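User: structure tokens for this one?
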Amino acid sequence: MIERVSYLRRIRAGLKRSPVVALLGPRQCGKTTLARQLLPEGSPNYFDLEDPAVASAMEQPMTALQPLRGLVVIDEAQRQPGVFPVLRVLADRAGSPATFLVLGSASPELSRQASESLAGRVEIIDLRGFDAGEIPPGDVEKLWWRGGFPRSFLARSDGDGLQWRRDFVRTFLERDLAGLGFGMPPAALGRFWTMISHYHGQIWNGSEVAASLGIAPNTARSYLDALEQTYMVRRLQPWHANLGKRLVKSPKIYFRDSGLFHTLQGIGAPADLLTHPKLGASWEGFALEEVLQAVQPEQAYFYAVHSGAELDLFLLAKGRRVGVEFKREDAPRLTHSMQVALADLKLDHLSVIYPGSRRYRLDDKVEVLPLRYVTEVERLVGSD
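Assistant:
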């Protein structure tokens, strides 16, 4: 079992600050496992709403929850949105006799209820699969290939991990989306999901995708919204500023889990990935997610000018303006794009992430860092 110490620390800190903490993330990313480390199985304060008997008892949530003291866990909370107005009442009691950890997979109803019913009372923590800071250093390549979902990463073999991901994709499309309130035809969304895997790391062109699939642009936008809300894809927005330049204004699309990206691309083995046309895009997306997880920036963008200069990632973090470039090269060098980004964005520091092993400087503000250093936030933001 991999100990997820940083998340446990964040949950405990959140419960001290707020009466309700919502732990949100995709299905099968480890929410229940984390909660069981805080409240053991069999506790009367643990409510798993996937259990029909428990769900029936929670049809009267005030009766079920009001007498409880200490930590209370409500798992799969999106199944009974009526619990949120009750939590607001219980959270406002004098003396705070109970605190509530709410686990849920993203859904429109869950997001609406959490923001409306629990405004000012809830702290939200997004959970993803394993990241590089949680696994042995020698397993980073394995994490890249299999992705971070625990059952995929911890599978006995690469083949077992691949089969798990294929089953996950099918279950997600055929059952999970409907259960989360997204009324979309599974086959159509599956084709769309596969189609946008070809846009991984690229500028989004909704009209082009819609035309290729024979659907309306609004339908393509709805499909993309659903995949974003369920943590399957990330829409990285462009940086907008009046710099007197023609800036790219459409977002980039990234798969948030590299293993699912490989599965939807039909890449069957790690050796096949190394000769695949999407090798560079796969590695960039994986490294980008690791950087965002490590830094937890206030804001994140990419920067691109129609004339050609661009920056993969622009972060506002730790009170600094930080750039990040991803280069799957043996020895990255200072480029014209980097120099333009340093000047245009007034960067305090620029990190160039690559798969090598040596750390070295290209400039006073530009440093090349091996991927394994992404967990060291101070190096990434240049504040060491």
